[in-house]
Amino acid sequence: MNIEQTFKDFSNNLTVLNEESIESRFGTITKRLNKDFYNIDSNTENGIYIGSYGRNTAISGISDLDLLFVLPDDFYSKYNNRAGNKQSQLLQDVKNSLSKTYSQSKVRGDGQVVVIEFKNDYIEVCPAFLENDGSFTYPDSNDGGKWKKTDPKPEAEEIINYNDDCNGNLINMCRFMRAWKNKTGVKIGGLLIDSLVYNFFLYNSEYREYTFENYHILIRDFFKYLKDLDDDRSYWYAPGSNQHVYKNNSNFKSKAKKAFKNVEEAIEKNENNSVYEIWRRVFGKAFPYPQAIKESSYSYTASEEYIEDRYPMNISYKLRIDCQVTQAGFRTELLRAVKFLRKNKELVFFITDTDVPAPYVVLWKVKNEGEVARRKNCLRGQIIDSNRGTDKRKENSNFEGAHFVECYIIKNGFCVARDRIDVPISIY
What we know:
By secondary structure, the protein is an alpha+beta fold. The chain has helices at residues 3-13, 19-37, 51-55, 74-80, 86-101, 152-165, 169-184, 190-203, 215-227, 252-268, 275-283, 291-296, 307-310, 371-375, and strands at 47-50, 64-70, 106-109, 114-117, 122-130, 136-140, 146-150, 235-237, 244-246, 319-326, 333-334, 346-354, 361-368, 380-385, 393-396, 401-411, 414-425. Strands 1, 2, 3, 4, 5, 6 and 7 form a 7-stranded mixed sheet that branches. A hairpin with a 6-residue loop joins strand 10 (319-326) and strand 11. Helix 2 (19-37) packs across helix 5 and helix 9 (215-227) runs antiparallel to helix 10. The protein is globular, with a radius of gyration of 24 Å.
């Protein structure tokens, strides 16, 4: 594998492509709110990009865009002097304003923001008041209502400026980690990703001058950094603002440990054509895979389906699956506790842990790999439903080879959680 060119292509594949659409929606939203709250005709004033797009760390296929709209100062007193949940009332007024423009879309309040839902993505609009120090006060309608502060401008400025000091590596790594999050189902917020990557370069200056030809080492060492972080640490400081960014029961350490092993294997097998499949275990479809090499692989089938092609990705919850292994006359075992499977076992894949609130839909993907699967024309790889009336999937270990099963949770039209388990079936 040509490391330099491959990682250049990977970086290009992650570039946001729908900037024109984003700019158009930004202008439409800002114009509506300016008309209703300022009585002016402007599609730019008082609107600010925040979140990953504002920090320039978003990737292609971004499903959630965060906008902040600065309200007139006197509106703070207007709402704060009201009885009841004044924050909820403010969000309701912003919702009513946006509903005039987006009458065919679902517009709803969601605690701290107003959400406009589209077919393949959504926009979160945060109404806020500008403070003298440049920070913002915004409404939180949860638990009776309160005001909170945020400071996104210095965060974006610090990320973008420090990226120049890091030879462009900071933003590239932030984007790579979003691809990893979406592929492997890492429950981690975007600001935490950016904060962890920032700290990595801040305290490991030797990586700042790395170029694409060293990216395999850079990525390996970053995953090592993640997996070795203190288990007891609950928050980090955001770049620029020094706000606390909480881990919030994230599973990033366990996922990073697995990614580290995969990257080590990829580095070891760099001259082997299978290296592309290993990298794709970590980063998914966005990682380049030459078509000729892909079609020569024992795991390739043109009929394979990818969840990214069916649903927009918004990984925001955790998911853990396992498999019950049974055979007549033998004790039942769990797959994660078994190193190898024998043939002719009954397999029942099921969810062991998730924090996705019901209701939701569970989908599966069963992929057989290797020479035997190809010879039997049984590579599979389609997205399939759970067994009727359950969130489980029953299968059988019919022939040897390296196989895997992925599970996806779909909620409100988005893939919000995913996990994978390997199914190594031995002839012995």
